[in-house]
Amino acid sequence: MLKKLKDNNQGMVFITVLAFIIVSMVLAVSILSLNISQVNTTETEIRRIQSEMLGLSSLAYSHALQLNGDSYANAVLPTETLGPIDFDSSINIITSGTPPPNSESVPINIIISY
């Protein structure tokens, strides 16, 4: 019986094509998964960088408020839209506690949410 199976070449092309299709599908799915993962990581990094830049601009805004005489003024900035994402930011100036000695600095807490 094993000799009959060994000498029988019928269906060999089908098995070869089937193996090629399976290998191609596995490679295609893995490449697609890798690309989707990279897109998600890139979008997260873009949001992080945008929120960091908005936080730095909020710091400059709070400094301008203090220069205008609105010291210790908390502020809620309007919603900023960068691309398809809405960013909400608020500036909380911490008045409790004592500032560092010989310093005019004021602790500021800037919250950016998206």
What coarse outline follows from CA principal-axis ratios? Answer: rod-shaped
Mean pLDDT: 82
The percentage of residues in β strands lies in: 15-25%
Secondary structure: number of strands:
3
Strands ordered across the widest β-sheet: 1-2-3
| Uncertain residue segments | none
Could you say which structural class the secondary elements and strand pairing correspond to? alpha+beta
**Amino- and carboxy-terminal Cα gap:** 70 Å
Secondary-structure element order, N to C: HHEEE
User: Sheet bearing the most strands, described?
Assistant: 3 strands, antiparallel
Provide the helix percentage.
40-55%
Tally of helical segments:
2
The whole-angstrom Rg is 31 Å
Brief synopsis:
Helices cover 54% and strands 20% of the residues.
Keyphrases for this structure?
114 residues, alpha+beta, three-stranded antiparallel beta sheet, 2 helices, 3 strands, 54% helix, 20% strand, rod-shaped
